[in-house]
Amino acid sequence: MVMVSVLRAPGCENIDEKWFAPMYWGEKAVPVSGGGRGSAWFVRSPNGPLVLRHYRRGGQAALISVRRYFYAGYDNARSFAEFRLLNELHDKGLPVPKPVAALVTRHGILFYEAAILIERIEGALPLQEHPKLSEKDLWCRVGQAIARFHCAGLDHVDLNCDNILVRDDQVFLIDFDRCKLHTEATFFNSWRASNLKRLRRSVEKRCSQIPEARLNTLWDGLIAGYQQAINPGQLRNPQG
């Protein structure tokens, strides 16, 4: 037995489950290159330019199933959770794409598949593809943007170069699958350091064309921007 549920943003009542199938769009769906697991497409839709992403398992879990997850209620479905989180982040004024619709397809009582449609940030490039990649000012702005999210309590569990988009002077974060919004951030939360360590590993891999010494200088710029943007009034010291 297959059951389909679609969560829609206001004004998107025209969206149904067909919108989540790349074949439905034909030439209007173009695979997204780089990052992910070949499970995202740029879509030209009547609602404007969108990104369609199917949820895929990686690592050892993919040996069991690439597409299906154990069902534990709609509130825990990954597409619905990311849809709600994006709404919260957008309401906080953070630079994220707007969620458009999310799909959960249940297969019996044990499994489900998921997909999401989000606004495409036109003109934005992944960090490692930006023409000013070797300029310290760009890295400082990236650090400032990450600090804004951390001050809001956002734990981005997959913070990497592909999930940082830059358009002009704006820096956006994307792909919030499994991410968490903590109710109170503190200076001593290990997740903040974990996010930055993960990004550092991604930088070393995705920006390897930059000489090591220069890359270290650019990373120092990111950390400087991050530290400048941290608001002590928002990040409370639990020992203070």
UniProtKB/TrEMBL annotation:
A Pfam family annotated for this UniProt entry: Kdo
Active site: D158
This enzyme's EC code(s): 2.7.1.166
Catalysis performed (reactions): an alpha-Kdo-(2->6)-lipid IVA + ATP = a 4-O-phospho-alpha-Kdo-(2->6)-lipid IVA + ADP + H(+)
InterPro entries hit by this protein: KDO_kinase, Kinase-like_dom_sf
Gene3D superfamilies for this protein: Transferase(Phosphotransferase) domain 1
Protein known as: 3-deoxy-D-manno-octulosonic acid kinase
Domain of life (superkingdom): Bacteria
Subcellular location: Cell inner membrane
Enzyme class, first EC level, given as a word: transferase
Pathway: Bacterial outer membrane biogenesis; LPS core biosynthesis
Any GO MF annotation of the entry: phosphotransferase activity, alcohol group as acceptor
UniProt entry keywords in alphabetical sequence: ATP-binding, Cell inner membrane, Cell membrane, Kinase, Lipopolysaccharide biosynthesis, Membrane, Nucleotide-binding, Transferase
Any one Gene Ontology cellular component term annotated for this protein: plasma membrane
Function according to Swiss-Prot or TrEMBL: Catalyzes the ATP-dependent phosphorylation of the 3-deoxy-D-manno-octulosonic acid (Kdo) residue in Kdo-lipid IV(A) at the 4-OH position.
Protein's membrane topology: Peripheral membrane protein
An individual GO BP term: lipopolysaccharide core region biosynthetic process
Keyword Cytoplasm listed: no
Annotated organism of origin: Marinobacter psychrophilus
